[in-house]
């Protein structure tokens, strides 16, 4: 597995070794021993989630507040998404900054998102299946949503690449809070 740091402290891009042949491919998406050797971390995943989204769907920006904050290991199973993470740790040097990258079925990149970050993605392909393991259980009373189009964050979602002016969002995501309300 290859490890790449990002400008946001603690946020990591992981690329597994992919063994391809005429039959397809094999990869190890997570290995606790390897993860600890690369990162010094040993997260305990308690829940695995999966979402299917169609082209132009934007999910996020979601997080859970303490004491139910979640670390997440995010990987794409099929398709392509533009994945975005926002640092919401008030004591962080990168508080309020965002990082985005494309996750797709070819590059097989994964994101380790520590607790304290909001997460969202825009689906670039006809369909995309995203799988993520989390370090705490879903807790509706601790769940929060940050506005995907917050002008302070000014996230450069690749909407023009899709030929759309606005993504498809849920009612909850349409009502996300402003960054200044944190």
Write a compact overview of the structure shown:
By secondary structure, this protein is mainly beta.
Could you report the average pLDDT, rounded to the nearest whole number? 96
Q: Which CATH C-level class is it?
A: Mainly Beta
The largest β sheet comes out as: 6 strands, antiparallel
Low-confidence stretches: none
Q: Tally of extended strands? A: 13
Q: What is the distance, rounded to the nearest whole angstrom, between the alpha carbons of the first and last residues?
A: 36 Å
Radius of gyration: 16 Å
Q: Output the helix-strand order.
A: EEEEHEEEEEEEEEHH
Regarding quaternary structure, how should these chains be classified? single chain
Helix/sheet category: mainly beta
Strands of the widest sheet, in order across it, are 1-2-10-7-12-5
From the spread of the alpha carbons, the general shape counts as: globular
What's the helical proportion of residues? under 10%
What is the CATH architecture assignment? Sandwich
How many structural domains are formed by the residues?
1
List keywords for this structure.
182 residues, mainly beta, Jelly Rolls, six-stranded antiparallel sheet, five-stranded antiparallel sheet, 3 helices, 13 strands, 9% helix, 41% strand, globular
